[in-house]
């Protein structure tokens, strides 16, 4: 219980500090809660710190308030000044002497340079000043005339180059037009050749198809012709047989009648049919011709 009262008293002293009072109340309350104080103890400490006078507040060093104070950066004391001995004074004297010697040498070099500058001044005026002075009026006119001539020459050269460029551009344009026309002609010829080639290919294709058709139809035509000839020959043979039978049935009674019948002339059968009929009947072993049959008694 005494420890809790001591914590409350420390909290009152902590809250009574002017620097702590500048901080927000929430931060002060959170800090006291982190130290283990309850809400009731914090409210009591706040109320007591509000009533405590600043004159009656004990010092920070005599109270345990130091454990609640914010810790600032540590302030270190300045180191003591070391004592100097004769070696330090000797080094200082040596450094000072070196600086003085350097300043003296620098002054001597500056004096030498100034003397050399005074000696070189007439030569500088003699050789450099003429180039630094502005040119005379005659020299300016000569230079101006030379520049004008050069400008005129450059302008003439530019004009000539421009004319040559225009001529070259025209020539290139004409050549381009000629090339374009030639290309168009070549395209036309190529299209015509392509169309002619396609036409010839189509014709060759048609001719090939016709030849193939004729080649396929030729055996059939030959076979049909052979069949027609065979049929004609068979019909002719039948007619000859009929004629022979007719002649045999009408055989005359006397030789005079037979001679008169024979004098009437041959039957009206073409010779090529007779030849074809004889050729067709000979292999099959048919009867002799009509003349022999008619003359048979």
From TrEMBL:
Domain Peroxisome membrane anchor protein Pex14p N-terminal: 3-46
Chief site of localization: membrane
Membrane-spanning parts: 89-109
Subcellular location: Peroxisome membrane
Biased composition regions of type Low complexity, renumbered to the chain: 278-297
The keyword Transmembrane helix appears for this protein: yes
Protein name: Peroxisomal membrane protein PEX14
Coiled coil: 144-178
Annotated organism of origin: Ceratobasidium theobromae
Family in the record: Belongs to the peroxin-14 family.
Annotated region (Disordered), positions in chain: 271-297
Any GO BP annotation: protein import into peroxisome matrix, docking
Biological role: Component of the PEX13-PEX14 docking complex, a translocon channel that specifically mediates the import of peroxisomal cargo proteins bound to PEX5 receptor. The PEX13-PEX14 docking complex forms a large import pore which can be opened to a diameter of about 9 nm. Mechanistically, PEX5 receptor along with cargo proteins associates with the PEX14 subunit of the PEX13-PEX14 docking complex in the cytosol, leading to the insertion of the receptor into the organelle membrane with the concomitant translocation of the cargo into the peroxisome matrix.
One GO molecular-function entry: signaling receptor binding
Keywords of the record: Coiled coil, Membrane, Peroxisome, Protein transport, Translocation, Transmembrane, Transmembrane helix, Transport
GO CC annotation, single: peroxisomal membrane
Pfam families: Pex14_N (PF04695)
């Amino acid at each position: 219980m005494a420890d809790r009262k001591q914590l409350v008293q420390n909290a009152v002293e902590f809250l009574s500090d002017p620097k702590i009072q500048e901080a927000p109340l929430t931060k002060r309350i959170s800090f006291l809660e982190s130290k283990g104080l309850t809400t009731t103890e914090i409210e009591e400490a706040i109320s007591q710190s509000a009533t405590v006078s600043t004159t009656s507040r004990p010092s920070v060093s005599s109270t345990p308030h130091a454990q609640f104070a914010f810790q600032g950066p540590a302030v270190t004391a300045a180191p003591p000044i070391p004592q100097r001995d004769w070696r330090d004074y000797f080094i200082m004297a040596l450094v000072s002497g070196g600086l003085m010697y350097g300043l003296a040498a620098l002054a001597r070099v500056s004096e030498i340079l100034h003397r050399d500058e005074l000696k070189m001044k007439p030569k500088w005026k003699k050789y450099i000043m003429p180039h630094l002075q502005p040119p005379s009026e005659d020299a300016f006119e000569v230079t101006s005339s030379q520049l004008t001539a050069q400008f005129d020459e450059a302008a003439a050269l530019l004009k000539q180059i421009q004319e040559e460029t225009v001529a070259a551009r025209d020539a290139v344009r004409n050549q381009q037009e000629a090339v374009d026309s030639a290309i168009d002609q070549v395209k036309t010829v190529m299209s015509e050749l392509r169309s002619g080639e396609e036409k010839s290919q189509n014709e060759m294709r048609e001719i090939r198809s016709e030849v193939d058709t004729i080649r396929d139809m030729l055996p059939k035509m030959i076979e049909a012709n052979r069949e027609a000839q065979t049929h004609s020959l068979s019909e002719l043979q039948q007619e000859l047989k009929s004629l022979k039978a007719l002649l045999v049935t009408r055989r005359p009674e006397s030789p005079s009648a037979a001679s008169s019948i024979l004098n009437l002339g041959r039957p009206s059968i073409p010779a090529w049919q007779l030849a074809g009929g004889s050729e067709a009947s000979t292999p099959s072993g048919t009867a002799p011709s009509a003349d022999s049959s008619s003359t048979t008694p």
